[in-house]
Design brief:
heterodimer, A: 104 residues, mainly beta, B: 454 residues, alpha/beta, FAD/NAD(P)-binding domain, Arc Repressor Mutant, subunit A, 3 domains, 6-stranded mixed beta sheet, 5-stranded parallel beta sheet, 17 helices
Amino acid sequence: MKPHPRTGRIVRLSETARPRVHFHLDGSPCEALAGDTVLTAVLSSSRHLRQSEFGLETRAGFCLMGACQDCWIWQADGGRLRACSTPVMDGMQLLTEAPAGWPS
Amino acid sequence: MSSGAEKVVIVGAGPAGIRAAEMLVSAGMRPVVIDEGMRAGGQIYRRPPDGFTRSPRELYGSEVDKAVALHGRFDQMVAKGQVDYHPQSSVLACADRSLHALTPSGRREFGYDRLILATGATDRLAPVPGWQSPGVYSLGATQIALKAQGVALGRKIVLAGSGPLLTLVTTQLLKAGAEIEAVLDTSSLRTQMTGLPGMLARPGLVLRGMTMRAKLGRLYHAGVKILGIDADECGPVSIRWQDARGAMRKSVCDMVGIGWHLRAETQLAGLAGCQFDYDVGWAQWLPRTDRMGRAAERLYLAGDGLRILGADGAEVAGRLAAHACLSDMGLTAPDSSADLRRLRRYERFARGMARAFPWPAEMVRNTPDETVVCRCEGITAGQLRDGVDYGGAEANRVKSLARVGMGRCQGRYCQLAGAELIAAEAGTSVCDAGRLREQAPVRPAPIGAWVRDA
Protein backbone atom coordinates (compact mmCIF):
# COMPACT_ATOMS: atom_id res chain seq x y z
CA MET A 1 0.00 0.00 0.00
CA LYS A 2 1.37 3.40 -1.01
CA PRO A 3 2.13 5.80 1.83
CA HIS A 4 0.02 8.93 1.93
CA PRO A 5 1.39 12.29 1.02
CA ARG A 6 0.57 14.10 4.25
CA THR A 7 -0.87 17.14 2.59
CA GLY A 8 -4.54 17.57 2.05
CA ARG A 9 -6.24 19.79 -0.51
CA ILE A 10 -8.75 21.36 1.84
CA VAL A 11 -8.12 24.61 3.70
CA ARG A 12 -10.08 25.22 6.88
CA LEU A 13 -11.29 28.82 6.92
CA SER A 14 -13.47 28.77 10.04
CA GLU A 15 -15.22 26.55 12.60
CA THR A 16 -11.95 25.05 13.82
CA ALA A 17 -12.81 24.89 17.53
CA ARG A 18 -14.83 21.69 17.20
CA PRO A 19 -13.84 18.51 19.09
CA ARG A 20 -11.32 16.19 17.42
CA VAL A 21 -12.34 12.93 15.75
CA HIS A 22 -9.84 10.14 15.00
CA PHE A 23 -10.02 7.78 12.07
CA HIS A 24 -7.67 5.69 9.95
CA LEU A 25 -6.90 6.29 6.29
CA ASP A 26 -5.10 3.40 4.59
CA GLY A 27 -4.07 2.21 8.04
CA SER A 28 -2.53 5.51 9.15
CA PRO A 29 -4.08 7.49 12.01
CA CYS A 30 -5.68 10.79 10.91
CA GLU A 31 -7.46 13.57 12.73
CA ALA A 32 -10.62 15.44 11.76
CA LEU A 33 -13.22 17.61 13.47
CA ALA A 34 -16.65 16.54 14.72
CA GLY A 35 -19.17 17.54 12.06
CA ASP A 36 -16.77 17.01 9.17
CA THR A 37 -18.06 14.93 6.32
CA VAL A 38 -15.87 11.97 5.37
CA LEU A 39 -14.89 14.03 2.31
CA THR A 40 -13.71 16.98 4.40
CA ALA A 41 -11.96 14.66 6.86
CA VAL A 42 -10.08 12.64 4.23
CA LEU A 43 -9.19 15.58 1.98
CA SER A 44 -7.72 17.39 4.98
CA SER A 45 -5.03 14.70 5.05
CA SER A 46 -4.99 13.39 1.48
CA ARG A 47 -5.27 14.71 -2.07
CA HIS A 48 -7.80 12.08 -3.11
CA LEU A 49 -10.51 9.67 -1.99
CA ARG A 50 -9.98 6.83 -4.44
CA GLN A 51 -8.58 5.73 -7.77
CA SER A 52 -10.74 6.15 -10.86
CA GLU A 53 -11.78 2.69 -12.03
CA PHE A 54 -11.95 3.90 -15.64
CA GLY A 55 -8.81 6.00 -15.93
CA LEU A 56 -5.42 6.72 -14.46
CA GLU A 57 -6.39 9.70 -12.35
CA THR A 58 -7.49 9.76 -8.75
CA ARG A 59 -10.82 11.18 -7.59
CA ALA A 60 -11.69 13.70 -4.90
CA GLY A 61 -15.43 14.27 -5.34
CA PHE A 62 -17.16 16.78 -7.59
CA CYS A 63 -20.66 18.02 -6.66
CA LEU A 64 -20.75 17.65 -2.84
CA MET A 65 -24.55 17.33 -2.97
CA GLY A 66 -24.95 13.62 -3.46
CA ALA A 67 -25.74 13.84 -7.18
CA CYS A 68 -22.54 12.88 -9.03
CA GLN A 69 -21.48 9.80 -7.03
CA ASP A 70 -17.82 10.66 -7.66
CA CYS A 71 -16.82 10.74 -3.99
CA TRP A 72 -17.34 7.18 -2.85
CA ILE A 73 -14.59 5.71 -0.70
CA TRP A 74 -13.74 2.21 0.50
CA GLN A 75 -14.12 1.05 4.07
CA ALA A 76 -11.83 -1.65 5.45
CA ASP A 77 -14.73 -4.11 5.63
CA GLY A 78 -15.30 -3.80 1.88
CA GLY A 79 -18.29 -1.48 2.16
CA ARG A 80 -18.31 1.84 0.35
CA LEU A 81 -19.79 5.12 1.40
CA ARG A 82 -20.59 8.47 -0.18
CA ALA A 83 -18.01 10.75 1.36
CA CYS A 84 -19.80 14.08 0.77
CA SER A 85 -22.92 13.15 2.70
CA THR A 86 -21.58 10.86 5.44
CA PRO A 87 -20.36 12.39 8.72
CA VAL A 88 -16.92 11.16 9.82
CA MET A 89 -17.02 9.04 12.98
CA ASP A 90 -14.40 8.10 15.55
CA GLY A 91 -12.71 4.86 14.62
CA MET A 92 -13.66 4.78 10.94
CA GLN A 93 -11.29 2.65 8.84
CA LEU A 94 -11.18 4.19 5.37
CA LEU A 95 -9.19 3.11 2.33
CA THR A 96 -8.32 4.91 -0.91
CA GLU A 97 -7.86 1.55 -2.61
CA ALA A 98 -9.87 -1.67 -2.51
CA PRO A 99 -9.24 -3.84 0.56
CA ALA A 100 -6.49 -6.45 0.04
CA GLY A 101 -7.85 -9.52 -1.69
CA TRP A 102 -10.86 -7.72 -3.14
CA PRO A 103 -11.66 -9.17 -6.57
CA SER A 104 -10.97 -6.64 -9.29
CA MET B 1 -57.04 15.89 11.14
CA SER B 2 -59.69 14.08 9.10
CA SER B 3 -59.57 10.29 9.04
CA GLY B 4 -59.29 8.73 5.62
CA ALA B 5 -57.44 11.80 4.38
CA GLU B 6 -55.26 11.23 1.36
CA LYS B 7 -51.59 10.63 1.98
CA VAL B 8 -49.34 13.28 0.47
CA VAL B 9 -45.60 12.76 0.18
CA ILE B 10 -43.19 15.62 -0.46
CA VAL B 11 -39.69 14.82 -1.73
CA GLY B 12 -37.19 17.54 -0.85
CA ALA B 13 -36.99 19.92 2.12
CA GLY B 14 -35.59 23.01 0.47
CA PRO B 15 -37.57 26.25 0.10
CA ALA B 16 -40.18 24.62 -2.18
CA GLY B 17 -40.70 21.48 -0.09
CA ILE B 18 -40.91 23.43 3.17
CA ARG B 19 -43.51 25.90 1.86
CA ALA B 20 -45.54 23.06 0.32
CA ALA B 21 -45.48 21.20 3.64
CA GLU B 22 -46.49 24.36 5.49
CA MET B 23 -49.58 24.87 3.35
CA LEU B 24 -50.67 21.24 3.69
CA VAL B 25 -50.19 21.44 7.46
CA SER B 26 -52.30 24.62 7.56
CA ALA B 27 -55.07 22.65 5.87
CA GLY B 28 -54.91 20.06 8.65
CA MET B 29 -52.89 17.43 6.81
CA ARG B 30 -49.75 15.61 8.00
CA PRO B 31 -47.54 15.20 4.92
CA VAL B 32 -44.58 12.86 4.71
CA VAL B 33 -41.38 14.80 3.91
CA ILE B 34 -38.41 12.81 2.59
CA ASP B 35 -35.13 14.66 2.24
CA GLU B 36 -31.54 13.70 1.53
CA GLY B 37 -30.06 16.43 3.68
CA MET B 38 -28.97 15.97 7.27
CA ARG B 39 -31.04 19.04 8.13
CA ALA B 40 -33.86 20.72 6.22
CA GLY B 41 -33.07 23.81 4.14
CA GLY B 42 -32.03 22.52 0.75
CA GLN B 43 -28.82 23.60 -0.94
CA ILE B 44 -28.97 27.39 -0.97
CA TYR B 45 -30.17 27.55 2.63
CA ARG B 46 -28.12 24.54 3.64
CA ARG B 47 -27.34 24.32 7.34
CA PRO B 48 -24.03 23.18 8.80
CA PRO B 49 -24.06 20.17 11.14
CA ASP B 50 -24.62 20.64 14.89
CA GLY B 51 -21.69 22.19 16.69
CA PHE B 52 -20.86 24.80 14.03
CA THR B 53 -20.94 28.35 15.32
CA ARG B 54 -21.05 30.83 12.42
CA SER B 55 -24.16 33.01 12.66
CA PRO B 56 -26.98 32.75 10.08
CA ARG B 57 -25.98 36.24 8.89
CA GLU B 58 -22.46 35.02 8.15
CA LEU B 59 -23.86 31.98 6.34
CA TYR B 60 -26.69 33.52 4.32
CA GLY B 61 -25.79 37.20 4.01
CA SER B 62 -28.62 39.31 2.60
CA GLU B 63 -30.89 36.25 2.54
CA VAL B 64 -30.56 35.62 6.27
CA ASP B 65 -34.17 36.44 7.18
CA LYS B 66 -35.59 34.11 4.54
CA ALA B 67 -33.26 31.27 5.56
CA VAL B 68 -33.99 31.65 9.27
CA ALA B 69 -37.75 31.84 8.62
CA LEU B 70 -37.74 28.65 6.54
CA HIS B 71 -35.58 26.69 8.96
CA GLY B 72 -37.62 27.87 11.92
CA ARG B 73 -40.94 27.06 10.32
CA PHE B 74 -39.87 23.57 9.35
CA ASP B 75 -38.28 22.78 12.72
CA GLN B 76 -41.46 23.96 14.40
CA MET B 77 -43.63 21.64 12.25
CA VAL B 78 -41.32 18.72 13.03
CA ALA B 79 -41.34 19.51 16.76
CA LYS B 80 -45.14 19.60 16.80
CA GLY B 81 -45.36 16.32 14.89
CA GLN B 82 -47.17 18.06 12.02
CA VAL B 83 -44.96 16.46 9.38
CA ASP B 84 -43.68 12.91 9.13
CA TYR B 85 -40.07 13.88 8.40
CA HIS B 86 -37.41 11.50 7.06
CA PRO B 87 -34.00 13.19 6.75
CA GLN B 88 -30.90 11.60 5.20
CA SER B 89 -33.20 9.50 3.04
CA SER B 90 -32.81 9.11 -0.71
CA VAL B 91 -35.76 8.24 -2.91
CA LEU B 92 -34.46 5.76 -5.49
CA ALA B 93 -37.53 4.81 -7.46
CA CYS B 94 -41.16 5.59 -7.97
CA ALA B 95 -43.73 3.09 -9.23
CA ASP B 96 -47.37 2.19 -8.59
CA ARG B 97 -47.94 5.10 -6.21
CA SER B 98 -45.05 4.06 -4.05
CA LEU B 99 -41.61 5.52 -3.45
CA HIS B 100 -38.66 3.28 -2.70
CA ALA B 101 -36.17 4.99 -0.44
CA LEU B 102 -32.92 4.29 1.34
CA THR B 103 -33.17 5.63 4.88
CA PRO B 104 -30.60 5.52 7.70
CA SER B 105 -32.40 2.40 8.94
CA GLY B 106 -32.40 0.70 5.55
CA ARG B 107 -34.72 0.36 2.61
CA ARG B 108 -38.25 1.61 2.99
CA GLU B 109 -41.35 2.09 0.85
CA PHE B 110 -43.61 5.12 1.14
CA GLY B 111 -47.05 4.75 -0.43
CA TYR B 112 -48.76 7.94 -1.54
CA ASP B 113 -52.03 9.23 -2.93
CA ARG B 114 -50.43 12.45 -4.15
CA LEU B 115 -46.80 13.29 -4.70
CA ILE B 116 -45.09 16.70 -4.60
CA LEU B 117 -41.56 16.62 -6.00
CA ALA B 118 -39.29 19.47 -4.92
CA THR B 119 -36.01 17.91 -5.93
CA GLY B 120 -34.14 21.11 -6.79
CA ALA B 121 -31.30 21.49 -9.22
CA THR B 122 -27.64 20.72 -9.68
CA ASP B 123 -24.96 22.78 -11.35
CA ARG B 124 -25.20 22.66 -15.15
CA LEU B 125 -21.84 21.40 -16.34
CA ALA B 126 -20.02 21.58 -19.63
CA PRO B 127 -16.88 19.54 -20.30
CA VAL B 128 -13.57 21.39 -20.10
CA PRO B 129 -10.33 19.61 -21.02
CA GLY B 130 -8.92 18.29 -17.73
CA TRP B 131 -12.14 18.55 -15.70
CA GLN B 132 -11.81 14.92 -14.59
CA SER B 133 -8.77 15.82 -12.46
CA PRO B 134 -9.14 15.54 -8.68
CA GLY B 135 -9.50 19.08 -7.37
CA VAL B 136 -11.93 20.24 -10.06
CA TYR B 137 -15.34 20.75 -8.48
CA SER B 138 -18.69 22.23 -9.40
CA LEU B 139 -19.38 25.83 -8.31
CA GLY B 140 -22.17 24.50 -6.12
CA ALA B 141 -19.71 22.15 -4.42
CA THR B 142 -17.41 25.09 -3.77
CA GLN B 143 -20.22 26.92 -2.02
CA ILE B 144 -21.42 23.88 -0.07
CA ALA B 145 -17.89 23.23 1.22
CA LEU B 146 -17.72 26.78 2.53
CA LYS B 147 -21.23 27.01 3.92
CA ALA B 148 -21.69 23.55 5.43
CA GLN B 149 -18.08 22.75 6.38
CA GLY B 150 -16.26 26.08 6.66
CA VAL B 151 -13.57 25.00 4.19
CA ALA B 152 -12.12 25.98 0.83
CA LEU B 153 -11.47 23.10 -1.57
CA GLY B 154 -8.02 24.44 -2.50
CA ARG B 155 -5.30 26.93 -1.63
CA LYS B 156 -5.31 28.85 -4.91
CA ILE B 157 -8.71 28.90 -6.56
CA VAL B 158 -9.97 29.68 -10.05
CA LEU B 159 -13.73 29.85 -10.57
CA ALA B 160 -15.01 29.54 -14.12
CA GLY B 161 -18.24 29.20 -16.09
CA SER B 162 -21.18 31.57 -15.97
CA GLY B 163 -24.25 32.40 -13.94
CA PRO B 164 -25.14 34.20 -10.74
CA LEU B 165 -23.33 31.64 -8.59
CA LEU B 166 -19.98 32.60 -10.12
CA THR B 167 -20.02 36.07 -8.58
CA LEU B 168 -21.77 34.96 -5.39
CA VAL B 169 -19.39 32.10 -4.55
CA THR B 170 -16.36 34.29 -5.27
CA THR B 171 -17.67 36.98 -2.95
CA GLN B 172 -18.37 34.47 -0.18
CA LEU B 173 -14.97 32.80 -0.52
CA LEU B 174 -13.11 36.12 -0.47
CA LYS B 175 -14.99 37.19 2.61
CA ALA B 176 -14.09 33.93 4.34
CA GLY B 177 -10.41 34.46 3.57
CA ALA B 178 -9.83 32.11 0.63
CA GLU B 179 -7.29 32.93 -2.06
CA ILE B 180 -8.91 33.46 -5.47
CA GLU B 181 -6.61 33.65 -8.47
CA ALA B 182 -9.16 34.48 -11.19
CA VAL B 183 -12.87 34.46 -12.00
CA LEU B 184 -13.54 33.51 -15.63
CA ASP B 185 -16.98 34.20 -17.10
CA THR B 186 -17.65 32.73 -20.55
CA SER B 187 -20.45 35.24 -21.08
CA SER B 188 -19.35 38.54 -22.60
CA LEU B 189 -20.41 41.87 -21.07
CA ARG B 190 -22.41 42.47 -24.25
CA THR B 191 -24.33 39.20 -23.82
CA GLN B 192 -24.88 39.99 -20.17
CA MET B 193 -26.45 43.32 -21.14
CA THR B 194 -29.03 41.56 -23.35
CA GLY B 195 -30.43 39.92 -20.23
CA LEU B 196 -30.75 43.17 -18.34
CA PRO B 197 -34.28 44.19 -19.48
CA GLY B 198 -35.71 40.90 -18.18
CA MET B 199 -33.60 40.98 -15.05
CA LEU B 200 -34.96 44.42 -14.18
CA ALA B 201 -38.14 42.62 -13.08
CA ARG B 202 -36.17 42.38 -9.81
CA PRO B 203 -34.13 45.59 -9.69
CA GLY B 204 -32.96 45.04 -6.12
CA LEU B 205 -31.29 41.77 -7.04
CA VAL B 206 -29.66 43.32 -10.12
CA LEU B 207 -28.22 46.09 -7.98
CA ARG B 208 -26.91 43.64 -5.39
CA GLY B 209 -25.35 41.46 -8.09
CA MET B 210 -23.68 44.40 -9.81
CA THR B 211 -22.31 45.71 -6.52
CA MET B 212 -20.84 42.30 -5.72
CA ARG B 213 -19.39 42.07 -9.20
CA ALA B 214 -17.83 45.53 -8.99
CA LYS B 215 -16.04 44.53 -5.78
CA LEU B 216 -14.35 41.60 -7.57
CA GLY B 217 -12.39 44.20 -9.55
CA ARG B 218 -9.53 42.81 -11.61
CA LEU B 219 -10.17 39.21 -10.55
CA TYR B 220 -13.22 39.07 -12.82
CA HIS B 221 -12.92 38.52 -16.58
CA ALA B 222 -15.94 38.46 -18.92
CA GLY B 223 -16.14 36.97 -22.41
CA VAL B 224 -13.47 34.37 -21.68
CA LYS B 225 -12.77 31.23 -23.70
CA ILE B 226 -11.70 28.38 -21.44
CA LEU B 227 -9.08 26.26 -23.17
CA GLY B 228 -8.23 23.65 -20.57
CA ILE B 229 -7.13 22.69 -17.09
CA ASP B 230 -3.54 21.48 -16.79
CA ALA B 231 -3.08 18.90 -14.06
CA ASP B 232 -0.50 16.59 -12.56
CA GLU B 233 -1.34 13.47 -10.55
CA CYS B 234 -2.31 15.60 -7.52
CA GLY B 235 -4.78 17.78 -9.41
CA PRO B 236 -4.91 21.11 -11.25
CA VAL B 237 -1.76 23.21 -11.59
CA SER B 238 -3.14 25.88 -13.94
CA ILE B 239 -6.00 26.81 -16.24
CA ARG B 240 -5.44 28.16 -19.76
CA TRP B 241 -7.86 30.70 -21.18
CA GLN B 242 -8.25 33.39 -23.79
CA ASP B 243 -9.39 36.81 -22.66
CA ALA B 244 -12.03 38.93 -24.40
CA ARG B 245 -9.36 40.61 -26.56
CA GLY B 246 -8.00 37.26 -27.72
CA ALA B 247 -4.83 37.17 -25.61
CA MET B 248 -3.77 33.77 -24.26
CA ARG B 249 -3.64 33.68 -20.48
CA LYS B 250 -2.76 31.14 -17.83
CA SER B 251 -3.74 31.19 -14.16
CA VAL B 252 -1.86 29.10 -11.65
CA CYS B 253 -4.16 27.24 -9.26
CA ASP B 254 -4.65 23.99 -7.35
CA MET B 255 -8.44 24.01 -7.47
CA VAL B 256 -10.97 24.90 -10.17
CA GLY B 257 -14.69 25.38 -9.58
CA ILE B 258 -16.82 25.26 -12.73
CA GLY B 259 -20.49 25.56 -13.60
CA TRP B 260 -22.90 27.22 -15.99
CA HIS B 261 -25.96 28.14 -13.98
CA LEU B 262 -28.28 25.28 -13.00
CA ARG B 263 -29.85 22.10 -14.35
CA ALA B 264 -33.26 20.98 -13.05
CA GLU B 265 -33.10 17.64 -11.24
CA THR B 266 -35.93 15.74 -12.93
CA GLN B 267 -35.21 12.02 -12.70
CA LEU B 268 -37.92 11.22 -10.15
CA ALA B 269 -40.38 13.42 -12.05
CA GLY B 270 -39.74 11.37 -15.17
CA LEU B 271 -40.19 8.09 -13.32
CA ALA B 272 -43.43 9.43 -11.80
CA GLY B 273 -44.90 10.07 -15.24
CA CYS B 274 -44.01 13.66 -16.07
CA GLN B 275 -43.55 14.80 -19.68
CA PHE B 276 -40.79 17.17 -20.76
CA ASP B 277 -40.25 19.94 -23.28
CA TYR B 278 -36.93 21.25 -24.52
CA ASP B 279 -36.57 24.85 -23.42
CA VAL B 280 -34.28 26.75 -25.79
CA GLY B 281 -33.75 29.65 -23.37
CA TRP B 282 -32.61 27.34 -20.57
CA ALA B 283 -30.91 24.90 -22.99
CA GLN B 284 -32.35 21.91 -21.17
CA TRP B 285 -35.44 19.74 -20.87
CA LEU B 286 -37.92 21.02 -18.34
CA PRO B 287 -41.05 19.35 -16.96
CA ARG B 288 -44.42 20.11 -18.58
CA THR B 289 -46.89 21.34 -15.97
CA ASP B 290 -49.69 23.85 -15.61
CA ARG B 291 -49.10 27.18 -13.84
CA MET B 292 -49.66 25.57 -10.45
CA GLY B 293 -47.19 22.74 -11.02
CA ARG B 294 -49.57 19.90 -11.94
CA ALA B 295 -47.47 17.48 -14.00
CA ALA B 296 -49.74 14.43 -14.20
CA GLU B 297 -52.57 12.94 -12.24
CA ARG B 298 -51.64 13.13 -8.54
CA LEU B 299 -48.20 14.51 -9.40
CA TYR B 300 -47.07 18.06 -8.61
CA LEU B 301 -43.69 19.72 -9.09
CA ALA B 302 -42.20 22.76 -7.40
CA GLY B 303 -38.92 24.62 -7.14
CA ASP B 304 -35.81 24.51 -9.28
CA GLY B 305 -36.67 20.94 -10.34
CA LEU B 306 -39.54 22.51 -12.30
CA ARG B 307 -38.40 26.01 -13.32
CA ILE B 308 -35.08 27.52 -12.38
CA LEU B 309 -36.27 30.59 -10.48
CA GLY B 310 -34.02 30.37 -7.44
CA ALA B 311 -34.99 30.20 -3.78
CA ASP B 312 -37.67 32.94 -3.76
CA GLY B 313 -39.38 31.38 -6.77
CA ALA B 314 -39.13 27.97 -5.11
CA GLU B 315 -41.04 29.21 -2.05
CA VAL B 316 -43.80 30.49 -4.33
CA ALA B 317 -43.86 27.32 -6.43
CA GLY B 318 -44.02 25.18 -3.28
CA ARG B 319 -47.13 27.02 -2.11
CA LEU B 320 -48.70 26.78 -5.58
CA ALA B 321 -48.11 23.02 -5.82
CA ALA B 322 -49.62 22.47 -2.38
CA HIS B 323 -52.54 24.69 -3.41
CA ALA B 324 -53.15 22.55 -6.51
CA CYS B 325 -52.87 19.40 -4.43
CA LEU B 326 -55.40 20.67 -1.88
CA SER B 327 -57.85 21.83 -4.57
CA ASP B 328 -57.63 18.48 -6.34
CA MET B 329 -58.55 16.78 -3.07
CA GLY B 330 -61.57 19.05 -2.78
CA LEU B 331 -60.09 21.03 0.11
CA THR B 332 -59.97 24.78 0.35
CA ALA B 333 -56.68 26.62 0.02
CA PRO B 334 -55.82 30.29 0.45
CA ASP B 335 -56.06 32.60 -2.54
CA SER B 336 -53.03 32.14 -4.79
CA SER B 337 -53.37 35.12 -7.12
CA ALA B 338 -50.58 37.07 -5.40
CA ASP B 339 -48.25 34.06 -5.73
CA LEU B 340 -49.13 33.69 -9.42
CA ARG B 341 -48.22 37.36 -9.95
CA ARG B 342 -44.93 36.85 -8.13
CA LEU B 343 -44.26 33.79 -10.26
CA ARG B 344 -44.64 35.82 -13.46
CA ARG B 345 -42.23 38.44 -12.21
CA TYR B 346 -39.67 35.85 -11.09
CA GLU B 347 -39.97 34.14 -14.47
CA ARG B 348 -39.22 37.39 -16.33
CA PHE B 349 -36.17 37.85 -14.15
CA ALA B 350 -35.02 34.24 -14.61
CA ARG B 351 -35.41 34.45 -18.40
CA GLY B 352 -33.20 37.52 -18.31
CA MET B 353 -30.61 35.63 -16.27
CA ALA B 354 -30.69 32.69 -18.68
CA ARG B 355 -30.02 35.15 -21.52
CA ALA B 356 -27.28 36.99 -19.67
CA PHE B 357 -25.40 33.86 -18.59
CA PRO B 358 -26.04 31.34 -21.35
CA TRP B 359 -25.08 27.72 -21.80
CA PRO B 360 -21.73 27.74 -23.68
CA ALA B 361 -23.06 25.94 -26.75
CA GLU B 362 -20.20 26.92 -29.07
CA MET B 363 -17.55 25.82 -26.60
CA VAL B 364 -19.27 22.46 -26.12
CA ARG B 365 -19.70 21.90 -29.86
CA ASN B 366 -15.98 22.45 -30.33
CA THR B 367 -14.91 20.13 -27.50
CA PRO B 368 -11.65 18.44 -28.61
CA ASP B 369 -11.97 14.72 -29.40
CA GLU B 370 -9.67 13.71 -26.55
CA THR B 371 -11.60 15.67 -23.88
CA VAL B 372 -13.54 13.63 -21.36
CA VAL B 373 -17.30 14.26 -21.61
CA CYS B 374 -18.43 11.62 -19.11
CA ARG B 375 -16.49 12.07 -15.87
CA CYS B 376 -17.89 8.85 -14.39
CA GLU B 377 -16.35 6.51 -16.94
CA GLY B 378 -13.87 8.70 -18.80
CA ILE B 379 -15.71 8.64 -22.14
CA THR B 380 -14.28 11.22 -24.54
CA ALA B 381 -15.96 13.53 -27.06
CA GLY B 382 -14.32 11.47 -29.82
CA GLN B 383 -15.87 8.24 -28.53
CA LEU B 384 -19.25 9.95 -28.32
CA ARG B 385 -18.92 11.24 -31.91
CA ASP B 386 -18.03 7.72 -33.06
CA GLY B 387 -21.19 6.50 -31.37
CA VAL B 388 -23.24 9.09 -33.24
CA ASP B 389 -21.70 8.14 -36.59
CA TYR B 390 -22.26 4.46 -35.91
CA GLY B 391 -25.69 4.39 -34.39
CA GLY B 392 -27.68 7.51 -35.04
CA ALA B 393 -28.17 10.90 -33.51
CA GLU B 394 -30.25 10.08 -30.45
CA ALA B 395 -29.16 10.40 -26.82
CA ASN B 396 -30.36 6.98 -25.65
CA ARG B 397 -28.75 5.24 -28.66
CA VAL B 398 -25.49 7.03 -28.02
CA LYS B 399 -25.72 6.05 -24.36
CA SER B 400 -26.03 2.37 -25.35
CA LEU B 401 -23.20 2.58 -27.86
CA ALA B 402 -20.72 4.93 -26.24
CA ARG B 403 -21.82 4.75 -22.56
CA VAL B 404 -22.21 8.54 -22.22
CA GLY B 405 -24.90 8.80 -19.53
CA MET B 406 -24.42 5.21 -18.36
CA GLY B 407 -22.18 5.98 -15.37
CA ARG B 408 -22.96 6.55 -11.72
CA CYS B 409 -24.21 10.12 -12.13
CA GLN B 410 -26.73 8.77 -14.65
CA GLY B 411 -26.15 11.58 -17.07
CA ARG B 412 -26.67 14.43 -14.63
CA TYR B 413 -23.34 16.00 -15.59
CA CYS B 414 -22.89 14.87 -19.21
CA GLN B 415 -26.38 14.68 -20.69
CA LEU B 416 -26.71 18.30 -21.81
CA ALA B 417 -23.21 18.44 -23.28
CA GLY B 418 -23.85 15.03 -24.82
CA ALA B 419 -26.99 16.27 -26.58
CA GLU B 420 -25.11 19.33 -27.84
CA LEU B 421 -22.31 17.16 -29.21
CA ILE B 422 -24.73 14.71 -30.82
CA ALA B 423 -26.58 17.58 -32.52
CA ALA B 424 -23.32 19.12 -33.75
CA GLU B 425 -22.05 15.81 -35.12
CA ALA B 426 -25.33 14.94 -36.84
CA GLY B 427 -26.23 18.44 -38.00
CA THR B 428 -29.55 18.38 -36.15
CA SER B 429 -30.98 20.51 -33.36
CA VAL B 430 -30.22 19.75 -29.71
CA CYS B 431 -33.90 19.14 -29.10
CA ASP B 432 -33.86 16.33 -31.70
CA ALA B 433 -31.02 14.57 -29.87
CA GLY B 434 -33.63 13.75 -27.25
CA ARG B 435 -33.60 13.31 -23.52
CA LEU B 436 -32.09 10.36 -21.64
CA ARG B 437 -34.77 8.08 -20.22
CA GLU B 438 -34.39 7.99 -16.46
CA GLN B 439 -33.69 4.66 -14.84
CA ALA B 440 -34.27 3.57 -11.26
CA PRO B 441 -32.48 3.51 -8.92
CA VAL B 442 -31.74 7.21 -9.35
CA ARG B 443 -29.01 6.89 -6.69
CA PRO B 444 -26.65 3.89 -6.40
CA ALA B 445 -28.09 1.41 -3.91
CA PRO B 446 -26.24 -1.36 -2.10
CA ILE B 447 -27.67 -4.68 -3.24
CA GLY B 448 -27.59 -5.78 0.42
CA ALA B 449 -30.46 -3.39 1.18
CA TRP B 450 -32.65 -5.61 -0.99
CA VAL B 451 -31.08 -9.01 -0.29
CA ARG B 452 -31.63 -8.75 3.46
CA ASP B 453 -35.29 -8.02 2.79
CA ALA B 454 -35.85 -11.21 0.83
